[in-house]
Amino acid sequence: MNMKNLLLTTVMILISLASFGQERNILWAHGLNSNGDFWNDEYSRSQRDFRVRSTGFSFPTNEGVINYANRIRNSSIGIQGNQSIGIGHSLGGVALREIDKQNPNSFGGFITFGAPLDGARIANGVIQGTPINQFVTQSVDNLRRGPIASSTRNVWQKFRDTVNDVFKGGKGITSILIRSIASRPVLDVTNDLTEGFEQTILDIYDPNDQTIQDLAENSNYFNSISNL
Asked: Which has the closest alpha carbon to 47: 15, 90, 20?
């Protein structure tokens, strides 16, 4: 929740600076299996502190990215325009990008966070039948090892970044410790939380849902927009 508040505070500061005091419409798009209540605190705060009019809707989210995007677009016609901004969390961010693809002039801009814009690996795991507890454990272990140990970066990238950190002096040494060691004890405190997280995933991820099919990496949906 604290991370969410930090992200949203940053978002609203950017919106405030961009608007130059002009009142704007903000469309808030929720994520998978969520609803408009996800944004309740932000509705009132944005109106009070940032002179923006908030609009949000609750939609079913299991019909696929395109259907979700169409629902959002059709319901927000009344506030669309170059002075309006869309903010999307998770699936909501992917849907906003789909709206922008279909009609680039519908909004003045979009802001997304926590949005799997290149696909969600966890969706692949759900479709393939990978046990959720195995996926969560692997993910936490990868985070605990730190970015330097990331399997998605080659040896040269890891070596280059390490050398760059060393030659930054004291701050560079600190950076190495944080990136390679300090993340472990920090993430150790999450061990007690993973069981609840696993159950949450089991509750909201159905491999038969079109949205899960769309959100998987290298899905038909993402392959269809890969050249955009």
From this structure: 15
